[in-house]
Specification:
Length: about 150
């Protein structure tokens, strides 16, 4: 019995890891659940959260909190500096390569700059082509072939 439980847990963990590797983008726990349920029908949201928590502790994943978005998103840690684009229609979040902040911000004397974070909002190409009536919460989307900003 012990080994059965163990191999099931390993399969679940591998499926969750695969979801991130395959999608190559930022995912919510719910999106991970939908993706992994395709191969592991019995997987639960609690299991997804437990494994995401482990991956965070191992620094394999990192958490992304987008202002105004209730649930956090997760992505593979250690990527090059980049920013995120959130589609206002479907809620999908895409990586934007590179950085559009070209110079360090002007700070009052005595302040030291250590980094920045910002989010770009708009509509993804898929939602633009489907029109605004398409409101389904489709977090599972193919990433745009190229980022919309330099
Ligand atoms: Zn969209
Ligand atoms: Zn930047």
């Amino acid at each position: 019995m012990g080994t059965n439980v163990h191999s099931r847990q390993t399969r679940q963990r591998n499926a969750i890891r695969e979801a991130f590797l395959h999608e190559k983008r930022t995912l919510s726990a719910e999106a991970v659940l939908e993706l992994t349920q395709r191969s592991l029908a019995s997987i639960s949201l609690a299991t997804v959260y437990r494994n995401i928590h482990c991956f965070l502790e191992e620094h394999w994943l990192q958490r992304i909190d987008i202002p105004g978005r209730a649930a956090p998103l997760y992505e593979i840690a250690g990527k090059k500096h980049h920013h995120h684009f959130q589609c206002g229609t479907c809620g999908a979040v895409f990586d934007l390569d590179g950085c559009c902040l070209k110079s360090e911000p002007q700070l009052p004397p005595g302040f030291t700059y250590s980094g920045h974070e910002y989010f770009i909002y708009g509509i993804c190409p898929e939602c633009l082509s489907e029109g605004p009536q398409q409101k389904a919460i489709m977090d599972i989307r193919r990433p745009a072939p190229r980022p919309l900003l330099p």
